[in-house]
Amino acid sequence: MKILHTSDLHIGKRANEYALLEEQEFVLKQIIDIAQSEKPDAIILAGDIYDKSIPSAEAVSLFDDFLVNLAKLGKDIFIISGNHDSAERIAFASRIMEASKIHLSPVFNGKIVPIILNDGETELAVYMLPFIKPAIVQHFADEGTEIKTYDEAMRYVISQMGIDKTRRNVLVTHQFITNAERTESEDVMVGGLDNIDASAFDSFDYVALGHLHRPQSCGKETIRYSGSPLKYSFSEVNDKKSVTIIEINGEETPIITERPLTPLHEWFDLRGSYDELTAKTFYDGKGYQEAFVRITLTDEDDIPDGMRKLKSIYHRLMELRYDNKRTRAGMTSIGKPMDVEALQPDKLFGDLFEKQNGQALSEEQKRYMNETIETIFNKN
User: Fold this and answer.
1) How many CB atoms lie within 10 A of CB 264?
2) CA atoms of 307 and 317, how far apart (whole Å)
């Protein structure tokens, strides 16, 4: 029995104010092509389908197209909600969807009923567990049971599943496993409170994880994050994105392989002086000009209007930083420690806007901002 595992689509996501719907549409078509060629018996989407709990109309439309094309393959499709999703929205129309072999995880209610697949050789039970928090599980726990940590929550939920060891068992869930590698585009729980030890999943033949964007196994090969199909931060620049293919046959150890995904536009983290990075010999023919780029300039002096100038070459420049004596010393451009409290609100907001959007406020925006600030201060 063959399974295709992916997760963390984050449809509708914006990166540094760049809309990524076109990038997502491009890679979702690749996933459909891989599904057509691999002919899996089941397809798993392990959470964070959308980037927001209330997705945009464009995001919903894109996922609808993707799901319709997957459903045409006639395979069982398993979809759970992640921490970015609304569990209620993901579960919407789940009973109607069943007729098309699309299985949507319901809002967690304390009971996880497996869906049984059988290809004549292997009987497989798929357990769908959406993103959970200790407080949610505590609400449904037996009287006298105290659940404070994510690890305790996961172990309790699994203990209530009544897993039949005579068949193969797969868990689809969206959580953080201890010692897994995070990237900058993922939510981080302070102090690692969301950690779950891999030993909690010993009862399963394969655990299809979502939440972390870097493809990786945790504890053992069969406890696996498929990773996101696209790069969503510069900490993922060197990552190779893929979907995971799992083959579970009889009593044999599952066979796990990866099918690579190619982005519409690559991501690059570039570093050097302004003169170096603007020399045609540096960027010509390298694919940098249309890629998503972060640039770190090593010039000691700031380049006037540097963002705009560099964007004339690097058309998807997301971020401009400096690494020099001044920035390493935490100084402002005039060589003094930055006193944030002494800066005017309009200056602070204007700097933030320019860093996020790559351009300064327009005169109309400045007037609106100043009027708003004045109104707020007058009220206080």
Assistant:
1) 14
2) 8
Q: 222 in helix, strand or coil?
A: strand
Other residues' Cβ atoms within 10 Å of the Cβ of residue 174:
26
Q: Is 165 helix (H, G, I), strand (E, B) or coil?
A: coil
CA atoms within 13 A on the CB side of 315: 6
Strand partners, 242: 260
Q: Tell me the C-alpha distance between 321 and 311, whole Å.
A: 14
Concatenate the DSSP letters of all residues of 78-124 into one string.
EEE--TTS-HHHHHTTHHHHGGGTEEEPPPP-S----EEEE-SS-EE
Query: Of 102, 98, 107, which is closest to residue 78 (Cα–Cα)?
Result: 102
Question: Which pTM does this prediction carry?
Answer: 0.82
**Residue segments in the chain with a per-residue pLDDT below the cut of 50:** 190-191, 332-338, 340-341
- Fill in the DSSP letter of residue 337: B
Rounded to an integer, what distance in angstroms lies between the CA atom of residue 67 and that of residue 70? 5
d(CA 27, CA 5) in angstroms, rounded, equals 15
Handedness of CA 349, 355, 357, 358 (dihedral sign): positive
pLDDT at 357: 64
Q: What is the reported pLDDT for 335?
A: 41
Question: For 218, phi and psi rounded to 5 degrees?
Answer: -130, 120
CB count in 10 Å sphere of residue 121: 8
**pLDDT score of 187:** 61
pLDDT score, position 39: 96
pLDDT at 193: 65
Classify residue 331 by its DSSP letter: B
Phi, psi of 124 (to 5 degrees): -125, 130
Q: Alpha helices, DSSP H only, in the chain?
A: 21-38, 57-71, 87-91, 94-97, 134-140, 150-159, 274-278, 280-283, 306-311, 325-328, 345-357, 363-379
The per-residue pLDDT for range 184-240, each reduced to its tens digit, is: 665 655 445 688 999 999 999 999 999 999 999 998 999 999 999 999 999 999 999
Structure tokens at 206: 């394969």
